[in-house]
Amino acid sequence: MGISKKFKSLLLVGVLVASLPVTTLAKGPEKKVIDYVALGDSLAAGATPFGKKDFGYPDYLAKRFEQSQYTVDFDNFAVGGYKSGDVVNQVLTNPDVIASIKEAEYLTIDIGGNDLLSVVLTKGDVPAAIGTTAAKIDFILKTIDSLNPNAKVYVMGYFNVLPYMPGQEVLLPILDTFNGAIEHTAIVNGDTFVPTAKIIAKDYPTYLPNPADIHLSLEGYQAVAKEFWKYIDKSKNN
After folding, report:
1. So what's the pLDDT on residue 237?
2. Does 50 map to a domain?
């Protein structure tokens, strides 16, 4: 009895499949590569409450992307002590920063906290400092947009870095006004504001364990990263 053409075809397919390497058969879909850029001050750079540098919230965000099946090209240009003017200089003159922004799908930034803190601690002109800082943040966001109009930009609102200091009835309204200015600036530039004050206020002893230092613990940075991720996760497929 002759072998039918259909049977011969099936047999040939079976031989070809059997000859393929196991790794080829087991390989799933390739991960999507994304470019993520972080700008900011010591909070993004990973300063911790007891003088060591570790993971900041951008590092935890990069891990979140990886857990969501992305391959992440991550550049963190944050520097401890940076003020808004320093980031203005970065986005205008630093060739590495400029090149990375042009390639980025996602960008996070926290800046301005040091501008305000220095004025609060020296009892300077707070309203003027907020206005000046907001104007610089606006310039930064506009510059980012001119370099890469397609990047999704997330701007952090600040938490209370001085929760153990007397005079909270004065400090908290200042923080609210400052965050309001940052939020407005983010919105008018088509970017996303990420509030963090409430989540950190839920557990100051855990998140800000050193009353003499303004920096978060690793648990605090994870909490901030989680707040960012809520907004990033909503927009990933948009």
Report:
1. 55
2. yes
What is the domain count for the chain?
A: 1
SS3 at position 177: helix
Domain enclosing residue 91, as ranges: 33-235
Q: Tell me: pLDDT of 42 over 70.
A: yes
Rounding to the nearest 10 degrees, give the CA dihedral for residues 219, 121, 86, 78: -10
pLDDT digits (tens, 9 = 90+) for 166-177: 999 999 999 999
**pTM for the full model?**
0.86
Residue 96 forms part of a structural domain: yes
Distance (Å, whole) CA 39 – CA 22: 43
DSSP string, 63-116: HHHHHTTEEEEEEE---TT--HHHHHHHHHH-HHHHHHHHH-SEEEEE-SHHHH
The side-by-side arrangement of strands in the sheet containing 70-76 is: 70-76, 32-40, 106-110, 152-156, 192-194
SS3 content of the chain, % helix, strand, coil (to 5): 55, 15, 30
Share of residues in the chain with pLDDT > 70 (%): 85
14 phi and psi, to 5 degrees?
-60, -40
pLDDT in tens, 45-60: 999 999 999 999 999 9
In a domain, 68, yes or no: yes
Both tokens assigned to 104: 């980025």
Give the CATH number, domain containing residue 84.
Answer: 3.40.50.1110
Instruction: Judge whether 28 lies within some domain.
Output: no
